[in-house]
Write a structure and sequence with these properties.
Elements: H1 2-34, E1 36-46, E2 49-58, E3 63-71, H2 82-87, H3 89-130, E4 133-145, H4 148-172, E5 174-175, E6 181-188, E7 192-204, H5 205-225
Parallel strand pairs: 4-5, 4-6
Antiparallel strand pairs: 1-2, 1-7, 2-3, 4-7
Helix pairs in contact: 3-5
């Protein structure tokens, strides 16, 4: 009898420990899913030099990881020699003609496919933004031409374009105070064009996981249908 009681007591102790462990794991998973994750996007472009910083961070940037991409290397295109083009010109022309004929038969289906793909991709971005907030949005542009009139016209057009783009973004994404900051700086009498964008998006880790799984499933489906 005493042995039976001891076995039952040991079983209950083991059960209690398992329940406590499961409860702790459930709390940890819930905290991770509800944890605010920030995506810091920082872009700078001037001439042929471009840089893009992508950084995932938590606790308002105290902990994070990311990488910086550098663009702007000039790639030399290898063009065929004149003699080679002259010798194979008829063959090249016939191949291009056959390819253009085949592509013309599929052009309408391709246009429809890419339109639906782009529409679905924009929908993913809209859903992601509706469940996110923007904690920082700063977009500055410098533009200049040798012609003063051209500089003034370009500056005005960029102000209008930026206002339209930020209006569209504000309809998808809630931007926290002080709100979006953007400006266009003209440089008269000098050719120059420079862009800088500093943005911080914040959302939940659970939302990122759900949207990422939906996106990967959709991408796998359209890859099979190609």
């Amino acid at each position: 009898m005493l042995g039976l009681i001891a076995e039952v007591t040991g079983f209950l102790h083991g059960l209690d420990f398992s329940l406590v462990l499961i409860a702790l794991l459930a709390v940890v998973v819930y905290v991770l899913i509800a944890l605010p994750i920030q995506l810091h996007i920082k872009y700078k472009g001037k001439g042929k030099k471009h840089s893009l910083l992508l950084r995932f961070q938590i606790f308002n940037g105290r902990i994070g990881f990311g990488t910086k991409f550098l663009f702007g290397r000039q790639i030399k295109s290898e063009e065929p020699k004149v003699g080679l083009v002259k010798r194979t010109g008829i063959k090249l022309f016939s191949r291009m003609k056959r390819k253009s004929h085949r592509r013309s038969l599929r052009s309408l289906n391709e246009i429809k496919f890419y339109y639906l793909t782009l529409k679905k991709f924009i929908n993913f971005i809209q859903v992601f933004m509706r469940h996110s907030v923007c904690k920082r949005f700063a977009w500055n542009t410098t533009v200049g031409f040798n012609d003063y009139a051209a500089t003034g016209m370009a500056t005005g057009l960029l102000w209008v374009l930026k206002g339209y783009i930020i209006g569209c973004i504000s309809s998808w994404l809630r931007i926290l105070p002080p709100g979006p900051r953007f400006r266009v700086v003209p440089k008269f009498g000098k050719t120059d064009f420079e862009i800088s964008l500093d943005c911080i998006l914040e959302t939940r880790l659970g939302h990122i996981m759900i949207q990422l799984m939906k996106f990967l499933l959709w991408w796998f489906q359209i890859s099979l249908n190609k």
